[in-house]
Amino acid sequence: MTVLAVSGISKAFGGVRAVDSVDFEVAAGELLALIGPNGAGKTTCFNMLNGQLRPDAGRIMFAGQDITGLLPRDVWRRGVGRTFQITQTYGSMTVIENVQMALLSHHRRLLSFWPRVGSLYLDEARALLERVGMAGQAERGCGVLAYGDLKRVELAVALANQPKLLLMDEPTAGMAPKERTELMRLTVGIARERSVAVLFTEHDMDVVFTHADSIIVLNRGRIIARGAPAAVRNDPQVRDVYLGSGAMYH
User: Fold this and answer.
1) Are 51 and 69 in contact (CB under 8 A)?
2) Can you tell me the mean pLDDT for 131-149?
3) Which of 82, 52, 89 lies closest to 67, judged by CA?
């Protein structure tokens, strides 16, 4: 089932087209990687999908509904989660409180949470932390966590609104190789079991070619290749503009 269908979206800044007539789809349970050199348009594309930027042209369909130009909070409420290159957690709060805050927002009770946050949605929060491997650190402050653990907490927060689509911006940035592998395996498992569509950007090509079901390559705002990892890896244009003629990924 198609969860996200993007048709002809474009965005220009000062006459320069950052994204130029981009089309793609993401299915339930699929991991689609959006890659390309710096300045290719990946971040601009992401920001249009979650409502931070309005496309100049084109349409964004999510779960059969047109979400083009909706505000980020409205996109989120429809079931689009997002993680960021730099983690977005409250360092002064505990791990479980961060997840509870997301659950309060999902249940539209954010304005009435003080001082009872400690008793609200505890079971749901603990279940999410259990799924991402952070239940044992539920009472620790986010401000003292290792970076890889923060990424897991952020994933639990992103799952709090029961997303059908998860946008992940550089999910393994700043992580050690073992942590990268563990986080992506976790993401794959969640995508499959919950039928969540995942669209992610990533500079680590080992991560991309190991875990993505399919890949889109952007260059100067346009799609230059798309398909299964093996096909993209061997595409002459991709090797020329991004991977390099001597690049080998197995």
Assistant:
1) yes
2) 91
3) 52
